[in-house]
TrEMBL record:
Name this polypeptide is given: Uncharacterized protein
Pfam families: DUF6925
Stored InterPro entries: DUF6925
Amino acid sequence: MADIRDVLIDHLIDRRAGWSMGSYGAVAEFHQDPGEYLQADAPTLFVRATPRGAIRLDADTVGQIVPVAYEALSCRPQRWSHGVALCLPQRDAAMNGRKALTELGPDTEAVRVTDRAAILFDLGLALPQCDFCIRTDDPALLAILRAEIGRSLFDPHNPATAAIQKAHPHRVALTRLGRIEVFQKIGGPDTGGVSPPGPHTHLLPHLIRSRRTHSANTPIPKYHAPLGYLHPANPVMDSLGRDLDFDIDDHARFQDLFSQFARPDLPILRKAVLDGLARRVEPESFLSHTDRFSRATVRITLRQQDRMARRFGGGSYLALVSQWRAVLDKGAEGIAADEDAPGHEATGAIVPFLPLAATG
């Protein structure tokens, strides 16, 4: 089995891989463009930064991580998403859980040296496994924030929320795994109401209030919490969610991760589906499964075989896969509306950043 440290280093080098940290409803993402200038590049130290954002993983924590490879259904029948959840036991994953705006002082642990004198503020979202922060050296914004210390940003009358949206401070997601920093503008009126490409954040208050650690569509082990996610290159869509011709190499690379780090029964189930197709059995005779993740694995396996057959001229095999899909890949169970946005967990509709409802 591959060492998870080597897996993470390999994907830090791969600019097509995305990363996210946070909690359910509050996520910071790091993405790179091909050829984008690197302001920090030390993959063996788990560090990378561009002019738009940065990521650093804690080397000691990486060695304790429980990796969980997973695949998720898409509402589009030709697609699926995938990733590797990076987990710890809940007791080890817990952060500070602050419930009000709190000044933390200079961000001396910032990835870039030039950001270490700026002041870090915990937004007070009381997330289970993440302290979601902003960072600024803007005197005007600092004055407003300091006047509202101890006050909740869930208060619609808190002037700090509008000031944050106007000033576009850096966002910093802190977990026991490390940090992701986002330097770009907050999605909202100044960005045409959409998230900018590349590093950005999502805050959705109705999900944050649930106090859940992750989506129900991700098979996280009991008593564990995901601190972040690795999103390897997807074989059927790019980082902006656009369709691609099926990429057999990217598919094979993730299947290797799936076979090593998925819930143990799911790769076995995938092999059973492929064996049933190879023996050309009737889909009605395939053993039904009551577990949602097992059913999703069956459906996704058939979608993968469909894309492979269409890409490489499947003929009668494509007809057989279509027959199986008509029986076993139907319905909308476990499918969220926005999971096709690679690099973040399916969390529901995206709305403007503030007051405390964000994408940026």
